[in-house]
Structures are given as C-alpha cells and as structure tokens.
Design brief:
- Helices cover 4% and strands 53% of the residues.
- With 135 residues, it is mainly β.
- The chain contains 1 helix and 9 strands; from the N terminus they run E-E-E-E-E-E-E-E-E-H.
Length: 135
C-alpha cells in the first residue's frame, strides 16, 4: 500500500492537564523514521531529555520552552527544537496544542522525564524566570 490512512482515535490523558496521541510511528523501543505526536497542555509542565532531537510545532495557544539556559515562547505557527541530549522544560501557563516530531532513535536509547505537574501561577516569579536546573 502506497497511501496509509490513520484514523483519529483521540488523545489519551497522560497526567493532570496533559493528553497526547501518536499520529505516526512509535516512540517505544527503537525507530528509524521520525515519530509524529499531538500534545495538548492545560496549565501543565514537564521536563525531559532525549537521545534524539525533538521539534514542537505550535498549533494553538502558547508553549514556553527552556533548554540550556535559554527560554522561548512559541505561538501558533512557531517551531521549537530542543537538540538531542539537552534537557528541555515545556510548559503552558494557560493552554497549548502542538505537534511533536521526534527524530530517529535506531539504538532505542532511553529518555528521562519528570512530570507532568501543574504550572504555578503566571504571577509567580519562579514560573516566569527560573532557568532549567533552578536559579
């Protein structure tokens, strides 16, 4: 078959304020082609580190990403890349929906993840200015 249709089966909750669905591929074990996922965050955050590049294309809302001491705020149409082996902190003070693309992982190297957890109030200075690793 040349054309493959994958019907939408909806997102699965993965914690408070977070849901996801795999659109194409599998992020379990090893893979040789990119994995495409949809994520939705409502006042939620998590931190992770992967052995592969991660790209997030924002569809709706506002996604804040910190990595290697830098912070960006991505809005609809923006794409954020966190390089392989870098720790990334992703959070939506209100709401964000995005497509995530995980680069290939042929050796099946593992990832680390903390969260999800609720986002502190946007008025909390620690939520607005704290770089990865505290500070």
């Amino acid at each position: 078959m040349v054309v493959e249709l994958r019907p939408d089966k909806g997102r699965t909750p993965v914690g408070d304020g977070m849901s996801s669905r795999t659109i194409f591929g599998s992020s379990s074990g090893s893979w040789t082609a990119p994995v495409l996922m949809e994520w939705e965050l409502t006042q939620a955050q998590w931190t992770d580190q992967h052995p592969y590049d991660e790209f997030n294309f924002v569809l709706e809302g506002e996604l804040h990403v910190e990595s290697d001491g830098e912070r960006v705020i991505a809005r609809p149409g923006d794409t954020v890349r966190v390089p392989a082996h870098s720790q990334g902190r992703y959070f939506a003070p209100e709401y964000a929906r995005m497509l995530a693309i995980y680069d290939h992982n042929p050796e099946g190297a593992g990832s680390s993840r903390e969260g999800p957890e609720p986002v502190r109030s946007s008025a909390d200075p620690a939520n607005r200015t704290a770089p990865i690793g505290g500070g």
